[in-house]
Amino acid sequence: MPKITILDPQTANLIAAGEVVERPSSVVKELVENSIDAGAKRIVIDIEEGGLASISVSDDGCGMTGEDLVLAFQRHATSKITCSHDLRRIETLGFRGEALPSIASISRMSVTTRMHGDLKGSRATIEGGKIVAVEPAGCPAGTTVLVKNLFFNTPARRKAMKSPSSEGSLCGELVSRLALARPDIRYEMKIRGRRVFYSPGSGRLLDAVTAVYGKQLAKEMLPVSSAEPGISLTGLTGKPSLSRSSRSHITITINGRYVRCPVITAAIEEAYRFLLPQGRRPVTVLALTVDPELLDVNVHPAKLEVKLLEEKKLPTW
Ligand code: ADP
Ligand code: MG
Questions:
Q1: How much is the pTM?
Q2: Which of 25, 64, 119, 128 sits 20 to 30 Å CA-CA off 101?
């Protein structure tokens, strides 16, 4: 066996990217999550060629200083946790400090950002993980991340992509889920500058459901809510007339995070067992709020799954 060496940061970032960035929609997810963590109330996503040619995410969040902007591209650089203890109680969507360096290592990227109250902003340009320029920039308060030529230096991954229209649909589907997860945020999705989706950010789930699924479907949804110490649930769930052949219309969020959660999905389907014909799935959007200490979000590379600790102690309503 050859001698062990410690990989250089660029190679380490490429390896992390392999886990975090499966396809364009993973980039959209990471960037939008960063915008949400930055307190954004308005997020605009614009893609070209299904995100393979370009993805831009702009927000009106807190922005970054020029110094932080450079730091943000280092591996494990995060403003969201400071020690291992914090991992037990994650209240932000991100915490690993992996997304920006990972995405930067497999694309041509620029980040333009200005803090509210600062007169000048800054822009960093990164290619294949190398910072090629950092300069002052005139820009609105908030942050715009532009990711071009995704996977330009990882041809095998690039080849594994579906058609631009399929990748674009996956991005659109993800933005819909994010809009359902956070009805208080105004989302706008564009393709080559043309708006294809808009959710008003009114804070009302019904408005987000209307934006995603249309008025007709929204009319057939009924409110649900329940609360126990340490956990509560609110949402909208469809009348049996709204069934689907797949689980595409089941959205579960936990503490504002869109997740796939087989245990809860199974519970929802169980509740509909005698209401829907066999093989049909309900339309439902459920938002759970649990004590962050009862939730392990550090179990999946793209944070798409979470682990509910002490699952057995959960109420059965
Ligand atoms: P994480 O989200 O896990 O902290 P990221 O690599 O996604 O790691 O981001 C690194 C850091 O860059 C974040 O902790 C945050 O401080 C900063 N950052 C990233 N995106 C934004 C944004 N849109 N607005 C403000 N700050 C941001
Ligand atoms: Mg992040």
A1: 0.95
A2: 119
**Hey, what are 183's tokens?**
């009805």
Q: Tell me how far the alpha carbon of residue 121 lies from the centroid of ligand 2, in angstroms.
A: 20
How would you class 256 by CB atoms within 10 Å of its CB: exposed for 0-12, middle for 13-18, buried for 19 or more?
A: middle
The ligand whose atoms approach the alpha carbon of 142 most closely is: 1
Which tens digit of pLDDT belongs to each residue from 160-198?
A: 999 999 999 999 999 999 999 999 999 999 999 999 999
Name the residue of 34, 69, 95, 112 to mutate for ligand 1: max ligand atoms within 8 A of Cβ: 34
- Is residue 212, in this structure, part of any structural domain at all? no
Task: Identify the three-state secondary structure at position 50.
Answer: helix
Using one digit for the tens of pLDDT, what is the confidence trace for 208-218? 999 999 999 99
- Domain with 177 in it: what CATH number? 3.30.565.10
Domain boundary pick from 199, 229, 246 = 199
Based on the structure, what is the number of domains in the chain?
2
Residue nearest to atom 20 of ligand 1 (CA): 34
Torsional class of 25: left (φ above 0), alpha (ψ -120 to 50), beta (otherwise): alpha
CATH code for the domain of 241: 3.30.230.10
